[in-house]
């Protein structure tokens, strides 16, 4: 299928594919088993200039966008979604800065991010604020020239490994979601510590940790946008990054289909390769069709985000929900095609199935995505669209 990539986009995709094959594939099993952060691969991606792919040239990037980012995330995820996540999360954490930072903040942070010298993380979730993002309890109190942060963030991807954190905290609890604000917090700031590292079903090479703020003082210049804008910063960030989860999902699904195809051609039962049975052929035809449909949607959503359109919530949520459901279905079917072998760790499809599950959960569960889509449908209807 031709997605009409420019020459530059083809180069980016091929570069990411090469790194995935040459650098990630040999380490995939070990990283998953040891639950080890893939620093050597982050270095490879930095050397290939991929961390700046969506950042403007004036801040050290290569001026691509959400679409180019999706191409890279898809290729890395085709081999290992855990490694891809460490890379993609840096973009998630950077979006608040890119979308809402002032020139001074961008100059201070973006170039090191684009060079891959510093990883970034996004801190919204708390123990009692997951789907209900407006329910966060972490506070930020202005005292003179500093904000003082108190509270605990939970399940923060790249936690402990990232140098820069974009954190959503309440500056005025009485105002509900309109009382949230967004901040930049640097690792090493006194009063900022990391809690336990989580043990996860999948995406095991990525790190997921608590962030603990105890009277953590940050300069007031680290406020992003204005006080009270934090919820909007978080929502716009997620709207921008959700096609990337879709890309991760199609990468995982494509990787699983690739494996199933190889296996089905080699596995002999009843005297012939199982690929010659219509039951297997139909499963694989459905898997390929679903992946292609998801790819169309994700690429379309990413291009729409890059167009500068304001109404991106619905299409971003659609891309995420559809692609992640496809990834779960396709990886489960791949395990089925490989049968008993598919259930064993000797083959990569069980890992792909474990990795796929999270794409239906993080950056907003698929139930929340459906709420977002339905709300937009209702709003559009009310406007007579
Ligand atoms: N863009 C801009 N503004 C938005 C927005 C968006 N995508 N979504 C909501 N808003 C605005 C609303 O317009 C509203 O503004 P006003 O106060 O001016 O009316 C405000 O934000 C509050 O919106 P709403 O009342 O819809 O908020 P809810 O508390 O009902 O929550 C959902 C809405 C469920 C969509 C939100 O909490 C959410 O996305 N949750 C999932 C969070 C998530 O993805 N967590 C994963 C962890 S982060 S990796």
Tell me what you see in this structure.
- The chain is globular, with a radius of gyration of 21 Å.
- The chain has eleven helices and ten strands.
- It has three domains: 7-119, Orthogonal Bundle (Butyryl-Coa Dehydrogenase, subunit A, domain 1); 121-228, Butyryl-CoA Dehydrogenase, subunit A, domain 2 (Beta Barrel), CATH 2.40.110; 231-382, Butyryl-CoA Dehydrogenase, subunit A, domain 3.
- With 385 residues, it is of the alpha+beta class.
- The two termini are 32 Å apart.
- The protein has a four-stranded mixed beta sheet.
- Helix 9 packs antiparallel against helix 11.
- The structure holds coenzyme a persulfide.
- Coenzyme a persulfide (COS) binds next to helix 7 and helix 11.
Compact overview of the structure:
This protein is an alpha+beta fold and 385 residues long.
| CATH class value of the largest domain | Mainly Alpha
* C-alpha geometry: globular
User: Which ligands are bound?
Assistant: coenzyme a persulfide
Mean pLDDT score: 97
Number of strands: 10
Count, helices: 11
Which ranges are low-confidence, i.e. pLDDT below 50, for 5 or more consecutive residues? Answer: none
The largest pleated sheet is described as: 4 strands, mixed
CATH architecture of the largest domain: Up-down Bundle
The CATH topology of the largest domain turns out to be Butyryl-CoA Dehydrogenase, subunit A, domain 3
Q: Distance N terminus to C terminus?
A: 32 Å
The Cα radius of gyration reads 21 Å
Computed structural class: alpha+beta
Biggest sheet, spatial arrangement of strands:
1-4-5-8
Number of domains: 3
Helix content: 40-55%
Write out the CATH superfamily name of the largest domain.
Answer: Butyryl-CoA Dehydrogenase, subunit A, domain 3
Order of secondary-structure elements = HHHHHHEEEEEEEEHEEHHHH
Per DSSP, what share of the residues sits in E-state strands of 2 or more residues? 15-25%
């Amino acid at each position: 299928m031709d997605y009409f990539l420019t020459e530059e986009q083809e180069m980016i995709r091929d570069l990411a594919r090469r790194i995935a094959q040459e650098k990630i594939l040999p380490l995939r099993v070990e990283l998953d088993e040891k639950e080890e952060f893939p620093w050597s691969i982050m270095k490879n991606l930095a050397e290939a200039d991929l961390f700046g792919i969506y950042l403007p040239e004036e801040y050290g990037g290569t001026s691509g966008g959400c679409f180019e980012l999706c191409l890279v995330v898809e290729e890395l995820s085709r081999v290992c979604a855990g490694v891809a996540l460490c890379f993609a999360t840096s973009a998630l954490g950077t979006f608040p800065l890119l979308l809402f930072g002032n020139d001074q903040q961008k100059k201070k942070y973006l170039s090191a991010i684009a060079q891959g010298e510093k990883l970034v993380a996004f801190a919204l979730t708390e123990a009692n604020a997951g789907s209900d993002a407006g329910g966060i309890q972490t506070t930020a109190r202005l005292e003179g020239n500093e904000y003082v942060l108190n509270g605990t963030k939970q399940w923060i991807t790249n936690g402990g490994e990232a140098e820069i954190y974009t954190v959503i905290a309440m500056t005025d609890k009485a105002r509900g979601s309109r009382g949230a604000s967004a901040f930049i917090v640097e690792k090493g700031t006194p009063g900022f510590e990391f809690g336990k590292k989580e043990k996860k079903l999948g995406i095991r090479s990525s790190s997921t940790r608590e962030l603990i703020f105890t009277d953590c003082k940050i300069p007031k210049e680290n406020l992003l946008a204005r006080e009270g804008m934090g919820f909007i910063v978080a929502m716009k960030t997620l709207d921008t990054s959700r096609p990337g989860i879709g890309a991760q999902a199609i990468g995982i699904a494509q990787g699983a289909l690739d494996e199933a195809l190889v296996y089905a051609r080699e596995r002999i039962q009843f005297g012939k390769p199982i690929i010659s049975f219509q039951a297997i052929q139909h499963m694989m035809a459905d898997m390929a069709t679903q992946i292609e449909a998801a790819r169309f949607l994700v690429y379309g959503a990413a291009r729409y985000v890059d167009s500068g359109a304001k109404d991106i919530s619905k299409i971003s949520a659609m891309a995420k929900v559809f692609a992640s459901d496809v990834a779960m279905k396709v990886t489960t079917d791949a395990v089925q095609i490989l049968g008993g072998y598919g259930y064993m760790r000797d083959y990569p499809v069980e890992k792909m199935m474990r990795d796929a599950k999270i794409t239906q959960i993080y950056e907003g569960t698929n139930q929340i995505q459906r709420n977002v889509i339905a709300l937009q449908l209702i709003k559009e209807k009310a406007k007579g669209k």
